[in-house]
Amino acid sequence: MNLTYTLRAADGREYGPVTRVQVVAWVHEGRVGEFSELRRNDMQHWAAARDFEELKFLFTGGAQPGAPGAEVVAPPPAAPRSAEAVAQLKSGAAWFYWIAALSLINTLVLLAGGSFRFIFALGITQVMDSIGFESGPAGKAMVFVANLVIAGAVAAFGHFGSKGKLWAFIVGMTLYSLDGVLLLLAGRWLDAGLHIVVLFFILKGMRACRASGRPA
Question: Is-above-0.85 flag for pTM?
């Protein structure tokens, strides 16, 4: 019988079955310790790795790291994000979609002659709107295209952030913070204050992303 082993991690997840050579490799790589729970395919119960006769040498100074012919194995897969972490991450990233959409709606309302606006929107697009409002039809068209590009870039942060890309949160929050500074300089205190509120919720999404350990 070819003996194989299954590893039960601390979180209850099981990895394997794998060969003895792979278990030895995991020990050398620090993924299996002497008290790690293993179950061999010829037994029904779990036991500590050090209790297996064929593995005892690994925990008594007899192991020889890097032995010739050792099989190279991949580490056990990382545990997936919890449902709560996924929800928090996506909720934080979704704010970028709202910022982009409301900024573009503000532009459309102003160019159509309306007067109301959403205060969660970007300050930079509001500045562009003011310029376009005084620039005639051609100027309005140029401002709309420019704001469309800006809104698209912000929405991209939401897209990549929802995919677990940490850089999207970092870059997006940095630019939104600078936009808040622009509003402060313009004396728009309420708008700047609400920027801080939005940044708080985006930050929660970024923390969930960082805690997941996904690549940036």
Answer: no
Unique residue bearing structure tokens 């376009």: 132
pLDDT tens figures, 107-150: 888 777 777 777 778 988 888 877 777 777 777 788 888 889 99
- In order of their start, the domains of the chain are 4-59 (3.30.1490.40), 83-211 (no CATH)
Q: How far is the C-alpha of 151 from the C-alpha of 56, rounded, in Å?
A: 61
Q: In what order do the strands lie in the sheet with 37-40?
A: 14-19, 4-8, 37-40, 47-48
Buried b (16+ CB within 10 A) or exposed e, 80-112: ebeeebeebbbebbbbbbbbbbbbbbbbeebbe
Residue 186: count other Cβ atoms within 10 Å of its Cβ.
13
Instruction: Enumerate residues 6+ apart whose C-beta is below 8 A from 200.
Output: none
Q: What span, in angstroms and rounded, lies between the C-alpha atoms of 168 and 155? A: 10
Q: Cis bond leading into 137, ω under 30°?
A: no
Q: Judge whether 127 and 146 are in contact, CB under 8 Å.
A: no
